[in-house]
Amino acid sequence: MGLTQEQLANAVSLGRPALNKVENGVQRLSALQLARIADELGLRVEWFLEEAPAAIVSHRNVQDPGAASPVIDVVVERIAREVEFVLEEDRQFDLRSVEPVSRPDSTAEVEAMARRARTLLGLDEREPVREIADLVAEQGLLVFALPLGAESADAASVLLERGGIALVNGDLQVGRRRLAVAHEFAHYLLADEYTVDWRLAETLDANSWEARLDRFARALLLPEAGMTALWRDAADHDGLRTAAVRTASEYRVDMSTLARRLLDLGLVDHGAAHQIRGVRTTRADIVELNLVVTDELSPPSLPRAYERAVLRLYREETVSPARAVDLLLDTWDEASLPPLPRLPEDAIWSFVG
Q1: Where does the HTH cro/C1-type domain start and stop, copy by copy (predicted)?
Q2: What gap in Å lies between CA 102 and CA 195, rounded to an integer?
Q3: 1-50: which CATH topology?
Q4: Average pLDDT over the chain, rounded to whole?
Q5: Domain limits, the chain
Q6: Is 68 strand, coil or helix?
Q7: What pTM did the predictor assign?
């Protein structure tokens, strides 16, 4: 959390030597002291008492001792814990798991994997991927989009005992958020336990592993048959810039992703790709070309199935209003929760023996 021992000790009314002994397992804490530390660090008390999901632990164990955890590590662990709690408590809420696929060893295998993934999502060889978070949720991958800051990673994913979760940095532009989901879906299909992607599509080395997954993400969002036909038609009639605006809008990708995909398929040269990267869709484009503007995964964005499960637990009074808000990652407040019906007076006997 970026605090020194002295800062934390002063905040929770402990001496620094005492806190040092606590960290080294020499001195015990009272429940009140532990609660103060948890409150100061913005964590629930059980974070100190219950083991994290196995994938998180295995990831943490490969880090340098004492290395600061990135923001995304902290948030994704919280989400994994909360999802597992809801899965355990709400029998109506369940996640499916898909059979892991083999790692692609070539560009052709990456493209084939993307085609199989589109079929899995119920898409044909031409149509755009609409509401990608909803589609991958049907395959067991829950997508959360939260503001993490410009300096944080683009995305991370965790494979749970059933299904998985993906956390996307909500501070990315919408096209990049969708690309990040597609990239994390690849990790999910490959059954990668825990992965953090700091910056997507930064490398041009087509032989690197992350570059292959970047290509998978582009192929998932920009299917060869559909986008090639649209691109050629628009380029012939409207010119390079308008073709880029039309294609990027139809498939809901950013210009950088479009340019890379056009290069993948040999539809443009590097000079044209450079021009496309510099294109910006204007308000006039939206009006004159009758474009549909969307803001998918606008932060904060939680999976609808997960929100419904939390509300069921709240309505059943399995969790308190404060705990429901906590499970909803503080994206709701207690005033947003539905009112609960008053219990009849004789309901007291359900609680008192």
Answers
A1: 2-48
A2: 17
A3: 434 Repressor (Amino-terminal Domain) (1.10.260)
A4: 91
A5: 1-50, 52-217+294-330, 224-288
A6: coil
A7: 0.88
